[in-house]
Every structure is written in C-alpha cells, then in structure tokens.
Amino acid sequence: MSNQYSKGFISLCLISLLSACSTPPTHFYTLESQSKAPASTNATNPHKMLIGIGPLSLPALLDHKQLVTRIANNRIELAEFEQWAAPLKDNVLAVLRKNMATLQANAIVRAYPWSIYGDVDYRVIIDISRFDIQLGKSVCLEASWAIMEEKKHTIVNNGQTKIEQVLTDTSYQNAAQLLSQLLDQLSQQIALSLAQLQQ
C-alpha cells in the first residue's frame, strides 16, 4: 500500500514540475522618452518658466498590469504574460514630464503633484481617452489637453490630439515602442503651444 502511495506521490510531483516548466515566461515593458532637444533654444531668457504636467487621466480599462489589446466585436484582451513593469499611469506621466523637460530647455518641468516644489507658472491637464494596441494593425492615442495659467486659474490654450501608427508586426515590444512615439508626438504639440506663450 505504501509503495502505491509513493508511486502516486512521485507521479503528482512530476506532473507539477512539467506544468511549471511549460508556463511561458512573463515579459515586462516600459514606455521611454523619445523626445530630442530642439536644435536652437532661446538662451537669453533669464527666467525659467515653471511647468507642471498633470493631473493626468487614463481610461479605467487600461488600469491593469497586463497589456490591453483591442480585438474584434468590442472586445479587449489582457495579455497575461506581457505586462507593464510599473503602473501605466505613473509611467505615462513620467515619460511626458521627461519629454517636456527635453523639449522646453528654458523651463523647469515637474510632474503632478508638484506642491513640494512650490508653485508653477502653467499646468498642463491631460485626459487620455484612448491608448490602444491592436496587434498586427496599429496603436492609437487620443487625448484632450489644456494649459492653465496657475495664478489666474485661466485656460490659455487647449487642444485635441488623435494619432495612429501602423504596426509592422504582432510583437508587444514593437507596440510598446510605438506607444512611446505617440507620447512624444503629443508632447511636441503641447510644447509648441507652451513656446507660443513665451513669445
């Protein structure tokens, strides 16, 4: 009886080991700043504009550690083994701040909340409504944004951004890289509006 029990226990252990070995590895991704400093800057301006990026809002359906993809018939899919290395909202905000700091050489850029650094001259409020992946098809970014003069609590500029880029393959790595590029394009649009305020 004990021999049969031992054989059964060994078989169970072998099945468990085989199951563990067959589980695919989890891949982790981050969004990265893609912006490059402008060729020329106005270095004669002694006053550095203080810019706050945020608050930022993202769709609730993206609030997952797994990458979310859109598929047919109004369905989404969570990629269990393809995950963000950090909360997506934090990563997006950090990339936007870094992009803006690169594009606005004569500005000091802080991410929301920036209260520990003191007041800012302008805050950029960003509402991202789509930040989509359709594997093998495209990535899409849709956002509305507004620039507020902080002391007057007045909107001085605003815009709508809709950008789509074609995916050349079905890899999540390519999708993450293109999503970073979309954030760069959004940053450039906002940076242009901020630059006009300094003129």
Number of helices: 3
Q: Give the N-terminus to C-terminus distance in angstroms.
A: 89 Å
Order of helices and strands: HEEEEHEEEEH
Name the CATH class: Alpha Beta
CATH topology: Rossmann fold
Question: What's the architecture, going by CATH?
Answer: 3-Layer(aba) Sandwich
Short structural description:
By secondary structure, the chain is of the alpha/beta class. It has helices at residues 2-22, 88-103, 172-197; strands spanning 27-29, 49-57, 66-71, 75-84, 107-111, 122-134, 138-149, 154-166. A five-stranded mixed β-sheet has the order 5-2-6-7-8, covered by helices on one side. A three-stranded mixed β-sheet has the order 1-4-3, with helices on one face.
Question: Could you list some keywords that capture this structure?
Answer:
199 residues, alpha/beta, Rossmann fold, 5-stranded mixed β-sheet, 3-stranded mixed β-sheet
In words, what does this structure look like?
- The chain has a five-stranded mixed beta sheet with strand order 5-2-6-7-8, covered by helices on one side.
- It is of the alpha/beta class.
- It has one domain: Rossmann fold.
- The longest helix is centred in the C-terminal third of the chain and has 26 residues, at 172-197.
- It has three helices and eight strands, in the order H-E-E-E-E-H-E-E-E-E-H.
- A hairpin with a 3-residue loop joins strand 6 (122-134) and strand 7 (138-149).
- The N and C termini lie far apart (89 Å).
- The protein is elongated and about 70 Å long.
- It has helices at residues 2-22, 88-103, 172-197, and strands at residues 27-29, 49-57, 66-71, 75-84, 107-111, 122-134, 138-149, 154-166.
- Helices cover 32% and strands 36% of the residues.
- The mean pLDDT is 87.
